[in-house]
Amino acid sequence: MGGSRTILRFLKYLLMTLYALLSVYPLVWLLFYSFKRNDEIFFTNPFGLPAHLLYQNYVRAWHAFNMPSYFTNSIVVTTATVAFTVLIALLFSYATARMKWKLATAARLYVGVGLFIPVQVILIPLVLLIKGFHLTNTYPSLVLPYVAFQLGFSTMAFYSFLRTVPFEFEEAASLDGASLATTLFRVIIPMVKGAIASVSIFVALAAWNEFPVALILINKESRKTLPLGLINFMGQFKTDWGAVGASLVIASLPTVILFLVFSRHIERALTIGAALKG
Amino acid sequence: MTRAARNRIAIVLLTSPALLIFTVVVAYPILQTFLKGFYRWDGLSTPIWIGVRNYVNLFVHNEDFSLAVENGILFVLVLVVYQIGLGTILALTMLDGKLKARNIYKAAYFIPVVLSISVVCQLWVSIYSYDHGLINSALKALGSSFRQGWLADRNTAIFAVAFTNAWQYMGIQFIFLYAGAQAIPEHLFEAARMDGTPQWKAHVLITIPLMAETYKFCFILAVTGGLQAFANMFIMTNGGPGTYTYTLTFVMYKLAFFSDQLGYASSAAAVLIVECLLATILLNRFIAREQYTY
Question: What total number of domains does chain B contain?
């Protein structure tokens, strides 16, 4: 019995490790070849650690590929998206979760539908809308749709958290003569800090990596975000594997670091999402 | 309930930003998509009402469209088999509370999720590369003379593209499946184990059926995700070879932004919404119809 249990456990570790390798090795391979020269990638050493750390690939990637500009654009768009989404969703969810009015549920479900809509289906009207507002090739042309689409998830997540805060807090605050604004910002919001963190990280990941909307709405080189910029020089510098690899690594660093630091928040944000969609 | 909780002005102020932005940027454009599907329209001149002719053209005359629908289904199948099939096996394996380093494994499975789809697609383009790609190099290193242009061959291209997506987002499905499996009370499972039922059989008989709610969600995610696929083929194959990796969104994209047939393109987008909606309704109906309470 003990023997077969040990074997079973070994098989479990084996399976889990094999998939971990399938999941991570391609990324390690990328990291390795971002430090290699072509002949090393192609012939002498395709799989292993680089013989020398060819950091020049990174210098080349950073300067030749407009990386600073793509990076700046992505940071601006992501920061604005997170800030507006969190603020707007919090205010909205406070009204739907903790105030009494007839259409609260209807309003909540209406905005929540955003969770089920594929962004592609509104691309055509969106282009015309952005043109109509004279916002083509500006940051707001991306921030607006990003916020609108993230509202579904974030309002539902905030709603479920706000419902768990006991109503006595508002009653006590109201007895002390606190205004609604004070109650909201001083009493309630500090109590859902964890939820704000989870939602922020989730929204940040989505905005940082978004592709189709950026593809359709941005065609000016100086306004391109990272995911869009990256595919540009893919064709242009096809033969320079090392530098292209380096650019991919640079583009991935912020979200990978964010993930390694906040992985618990991400997992929590996801499982809230699951409970809601199901 | 305090008096402040019924303050109407406050309710309007709090909710109007969200309602306004959602209505203008999401709800109104969805209506527009459905409506414009009934027009011939180049985006500049006045749209001309043509009834269901766009839809007739799509379903009867457009070969890209039928290929795109077929590819959507293949894409879904790859996601379901890979993410839900393999994901279930991994989640149930990791359920054993005595295993160590589970957080490290979870992180390893999740890391591709946080990468940009552009990064992942480019990485896999180099992995699939005919001359120097990881797969063909590995085959050579193993002494095999077999090599394959994974993205250039019309039989393998759609699968190669779908695999990339399945691989990248496996971590999300895994988290859901694992959380769902963990939520099943252990005593139900232990009771079966007492009778001497092997672990895998107990899982098949007890754990998996009890996870119906989780599966419903995971299937909805995989099916709608597969039907919506676009960025993967846009970056990896540009729809090719030929049109062999076209999807509905690709059809819409080409019609709208390369041949200025915005009405026709809208009808393709409307088909996509209806597909996703139908899939969601059907899955809701057929999975997890009974509620379990423990």
Answer: 1
Asked if the structure places residue B46 within a domain, the reply is no
Copy the structure tokens of residue B225.
């995700």
Amino acid at A119: V
More confident residue, A270 or B107: B107
| A162 token code pair | 């706000």
At residue B144, the 3 state secondary structure works out as: coil
Residue B293 confidence (pLDDT) above 70: no
Task: Name every chain A residue with its beta carbon within 8 A of the beta carbon of B39.
Answer: none
For B90-111, b/e burial (b = at least 16 CB within 10 A) is bbbbbbeeeeeeeeebbbbbbb
Residue with tokens 């990637």: A61
- Asked if the Cβ–Cβ distance from B24 to A129 is below 8 Å, we say yes
Would B138 be classed as within a structural domain?
Answer: yes
Quick one: DSSP state of residue B203? I
- For residue B294, being part of any structural domain is answered with no
CA distance B104 to B237: 34
pLDDT band at A202 (very low <50, low <70, confident <90, very high): confident
Residues of chain A in contact with residue B36, where contact means CB-CB under 8 angstroms, are 124-125
pTM, 2 dp: 0.90
Q: Could you report the per-residue pLDDT of B76-128, keeping only the tens digit for each?
A: 999 999 999 999 999 999 988 788 889 999 999 999 999 999 999 999 999 99
Who among B5, B19, B125 is closest to A170 (CB)?
Answer: B5
Residues A196, B42: Cα–Cα separation, whole Å: 44
Q: Tell which residue, B225, B245, B223, has the closest CA to residue B234.
A: B245
Judge whether B154 lies within some domain. yes
For Cα atoms A101, A106, A109, give the angle at the middle one, nearest 5 degrees. 130
Residues of B in contact with A267 (CB under 8 A): 106, 110, 175
Percent of chain B topping pLDDT 90: 64
Q: What does each C-alpha distance from B112 to A20, A211, A262, B22, B170 come to in angstroms?
A: 11, 16, 15, 30, 8
Q: Domain of B66?
A: 62-286
Q: What number of helices (H) and strands (E) belong to chain A?
A: 14, 0
Domain CATH number, residue B90 = 1.10.3720.10
